[in-house]
Each structure stands twice: as structure tokens, then as C-alpha cells.
ABC transporter ATP-binding protein (Paenibacillus piri), 289 residues
Amino acid sequence: MISCEELVKIYKTDDIEVVALKGLNISVADGEMMAIIGNSGSGKSTLLNILGGLDRPSAGQVQVGEWNLLKITDDELVKYKRKTVGFIWQNNARNLVPYLTALENVEMPMMLSGQYDRTYAKQLLEWVGLKERMGNKLQQLSGGEQQRVAIAISLANRPSLLLADEPTGSVDTRTSDMIMDIFRKLNRELGVTIVIVTHDMTLAGKVDRVVAIRDGMTSTEFIKRNPNLDQLEAGGHSIQEAHEEYVVLDRAGRLQIPKTYLQALGIDNKASMEFDGDKIIIRPPKSLT
Ligand SMILES: Nc1ncnc2c1ncn2[C@@H]1O[C@H](COP(=O)(O)OP(=O)(O)OP(=O)(O)O)[C@@H](O)[C@H]1O
């Protein structure tokens, strides 16, 4: 579904340039439900905004389904945003209209794309557990309910990819669990590919794969040891318990070594590397004296 190779994003303001993505590589398979984690400023939202067609990449390759997002024209981008991809933000004020009902909010993107379907709009609201509240105006719903309306809206045009930026950032744990269950159901039943950006490690433990971004590059990947675990794990396993951790190698064979490891060994800009037939050993450079 998604393939990014050596993806670069540079933000230029009057006097500074910020390189938010520095040659990032990531692939997401059709029908996968995965999470992206990373410290503040590591480039997570930048990546999601590029995948959502809200921002343009500076260099590299980005393919989502049939679309090459580096070469896509402005007209095609409008179609892409309407048909292929759905977006959910932490702060849902961006895609909700407070004086319309929940149902009218879901119908609006359908009307804009000429695919009005009231039955499907109702079904979506039922899927997110709001069957009884679809006639309520948005301002009469709680924050968690509004977030569930936002999920229904994001699916109104039957996208094959759902991007969620901190979707549970401003709701309580119970609502956050409910939202993750809704994502899992949509992923299984509709086959929607789902990419979630989050700070929340317990939430990350509920997906099949987690990719960690550090300094604008993919660094580590956590893959679920037992893909059937989520039925058993209502109590919540930590990501380390539930997933196997791998360091990511790019096509040129480069890998990122965590700063803390380098500092602990006093490695600065060089290291010695040895292959003993079984493992690769990285050490601080031997003293030349
Ligand atoms: N429009 C912009 N103009 C200039 N710099 C930007 C812009 N958007 C993001 N950046 C910079 O790019 C870098 C990556 O930002 P990004 O928002 O992608 O990080 P993030 O991992 O999503 O962080 P957070 O978890 O805090 O949301 C940061 O240094 C940020 O300041």
C-alpha cells in the first residue's frame, strides 16, 4: 500500500531550513494495521501529512497504492485526498461542523465527492457505536463521541488507507481502548490499511507492527510475536513483551545506533567493526598511540 524510499522533507522559512525527514524508508502492506512512534520533533506528523497529501515531499520516492506522491498533479491530489485516504487528527475540530448533526457531518464529504449514501453513513455511525446519537448536533456530544464521529467521517468515501495522528491523544483510557477496538474492526472487516502516529506505548502494543522514527529516519521496528495476541491481551502487554525489536537497515546497509549506546561507549564519529563469523561487533576506535 505504502512505499517510501529515501524520503526527504525540508521546511524552508525566511532564514532557516529544517530537514524534518532525512531519507526515511518505510513500507506498509495492504491491510496492515501499524503504528509509528518517536520523540517530539522526530518527523512523525511530517510523514503522515505527506502520506495524506497535505504536504509535498522534497525528494525521494513515495508511492501510495497507484499514486506517486512526488509526481502527482494538484488536480490528482484533490482526487487522492477524497478517494484513497482518510485522515483523523487528535483535535477533530478540523473536520467537524458543530451545528450539524453527527449524520449530516458524515454525509458532507459524501456530497462533496458526489457519492451520497445515507444508508452507508448510518452504518458507519453504527460501527463506531453512535447509532443512538446520530441525530444529535456535534456540540451535544462529548469529546470521545466527537472523535468517533471523526472516524466515521474519515471513512465516508470508502478510503483504502486511514491515517490517524494521535487519535487518542485527548480522550480517557476507556475511550482510547474503544477507538482502538473500532480501528481493529474496520481493519479486519473492511480491509482498510491503518497507520497510527502515537506517543502512547500501550496503544502501540495493540497493533501488529510498530516503526520507530528517530531524527527523521526509521530506526527500529517492533513486530508482534503472536499476531493473535490482541484477543488475549485485554489486560495490556507492554510493547517489549508483545513484540520482537529489530534495528532497521536501509538499502545501502546503513543502520542507526541509538545515541545512548554511542555515548556509553564514547563513540563519536568513528567506530571499529568486526565480524566474527557469527555476529558483528562495534567498538570505540582503538587508540592509535
Ligand atoms: N511547517 C513547518 N515549518 C518549519 N518546520 C517545521 C514545520 N512542520 C514541522 N517542522 C519541523 O520539522 C520537524 C519534525 O516535525 P514533526 O511535527 O513532523 O514532528 P513530530 O514527530 O510529529 O513531533 P510531535 O510528536 O511533537 O508532534 C520539527 O523540527 C519541526 O519543528
